[in-house]
């Protein structure tokens, strides 16, 4: 899969394509239906399938304080899109220029002239452009003049309800990870490469692997987790995602204490699957108090997984 970041790199894209546009946060069942539809049509036509993304999300740019927390980092999103068979991802930086671009200008500049879109697959409620004035009707009208076709996709229903990123966030907030797995067709997880940390966990008797997190994610606090990527086995553990207030942490971090594993894994790419929320992150009065709480978290997680204490 080819990643094209920014309009200045559009020269890397040569020839026509079939495309879709969106944030695709979480890549839930509804998103998957769009991607499957796009790939099938593109393969039949013999042209690349292209997903057009925005970074940051438009809501994060216009109203960062009220923007919904992320389900998926850009890195995770790209990994999933590769799994779905997408040929190219165009990641546009959402800034003052793009935020002020009219819907007509977006279609003409990006879809028609730069990407040469021949067929566009979009949700039936899709809106874009300055003040969100662009919609399916405008795209269809442009298509008739510029020579591309537009195909709407109806909302994806699961048990009679529309699947959405909002629903996934609500299920995570309610600690219903069984429902989340149904809506995503996979366990909810965060992937990342293991970095060196400050070794505080090791000193307290609970060594951790550390995965940096750049954005506020839908999961915050302490969780019972499964870990894939260390070996061919699936491991269990406890994860804290946040800023580590007791240690006066400043940057967001995903720390995972893995049961029954003591090997080195710096540089390894791990997938941390969230199974059950244990508690919120909080600041303790001392390292001794934090250590006691971690021990309790480990015991609670082992009991949840049915691991003998």
CATH homologous superfamily of the largest domain - what is it?
A: HUPs
Quantity of strands, as a count: 14
The low-confidence runs, each spanning 5 or more residues with pLDDT under 50, are: none
The amount of helix comes to 25-40%
Classify the beta-strand content into a percent band.
Answer: 25-35%
Mean pLDDT: 89
CATH architecture of the largest domain: 3-Layer(aba) Sandwich
CATH class of the largest domain: Alpha Beta
CATH topology of the largest domain: Rossmann fold
Number of domains: 2
Q: What pattern of helices and strands is seen along the backbone? A: EEHEHHEHHEHEEEHHEHEEEEEH
Most strands sheet: 6 strands, parallel
Widest sheet, order of strands: 1-4-3-2-5-6
The tally of helices reads 10
| Net shape | elongated
Rg, please? 22 Å
Instruction: Determine the N-to-C terminus distance.
Output: 45 Å
The assigned structural class equals alpha/beta
Explain this structure.
There is one protein chain. This protein is α/β, with parallel strands linked by helices and 309 residues long. The protein folds into two domains: 2-162, Rossmann fold; 187-305, Riboflavin kinase-like (Elongation Factor Tu (Ef-tu), domain 3), CATH 2.40.30.30. Helices cover 32% and strands 26% of the residues. The protein is built from ten helices and 14 strands. It has helices at 29-45, 58-62, 74-83, 96-100, 103-114, 136-146, 165-173, 177-184, 200-203, 287-305; strands at 2-5, 17-21, 49-55, 88-93, 117-123, 149-153, 157-158, 161-162, 189-193, 209-212, 221-228, 235-242, 253-258, 269-279. A six-stranded parallel beta sheet has the order 1-4-3-2-5-6, sandwiched between helices. A six-stranded antiparallel beta sheet has the order 9-14-11-12-13-10, with helices on one face. A hairpin with a 6-residue loop joins strand 11 and strand 12. The longest helix is centred in the last third of the chain and has 19 residues, at 287-305. The chain starts with a strand and ends with a helix. The relative contact order is 0.12.
